[in-house]
Amino acid sequence: MSDDVAQLAQRLRLGPSELTRGIGGPWSVARRVEEREMERPGTLLVGRAGPSVALLVSDDVDPVVVVGRAVGEWHGLATLEWSVDHVVVELQTPPREAAAGEVDAFLVRLADAVDAAFDAARASLVLCRYCGGLFAPEYVVYEDCCQACGSAVYGIVY
Fold it and tell me: If you placed Cys at 134, which of 19, 26, 37, 49 could pair as Cys (CB 3.0 to 4.6 Å)?
């Protein structure tokens, strides 16, 4: 389990394994597209297959979680920045003193939103013909080859 998931779980007042079971993974903190994302300060995580889903967790004491499709933009040769597109839902996390049932209900709503965002992004994901992995279009070379297979098969150096 990544440190990013553990930190997200702590901010949402959930157990890391409980969070991973609820929303799948893997998840990692992403560099944000500044000009598009600065009106919503917080931490952006991208994950699920691809990655295809974005979670923006606000910096508030009781964070708001924005769930939507993850969209990446390459800046230069090596910098990939992400933003949240097609927002599915904004969820207010339960307050610190919330009962366990309220926290569980929040996790169910979050999991449903992540699933909906993944379903919305599914059509844009690319199945690599060499490794069979599912990739976001940001990680694809040619029309059906992931970057890793692009290096292994075509000798592309990044």
Answer: 49
What is the distance between the alpha carbons of residues 20 and 9, in angstroms, rounded to a whole number? 9
Domain spans in the chain, listed from the N-terminal domain onward:
3-124, 125-158
In the prediction, which pLDDT does 36 show?
Answer: 60
Structure tokens at 78: 């090596």
Task: For residue 95, say if its preceding peptide bond is cis, omega within 30 degrees of 0.
Answer: no
| pLDDT tens sequence across 40-76 | 788 899 998 888 999 999 888 888 999 999 999 988 7
Q: How far apart are the first and last CA of the chain?
A: 27
Residues 6 or more apart whose CB falls under 8 angstroms from that of 64 comprise: 57, 58, 90, 91, 92, 93
Q: Are 72 and 136 in contact (CB under 8 A)?
A: yes
**Distance of CA 116 to CAs 43, 56, 74, 80, 119, Å?**
21, 15, 25, 24, 5
Per DSSP (E only), the strands in the chain are 27-29, 42-47, 53-58, 64-75, 79-92, 126-127, 134-135, 140-141, 145-146
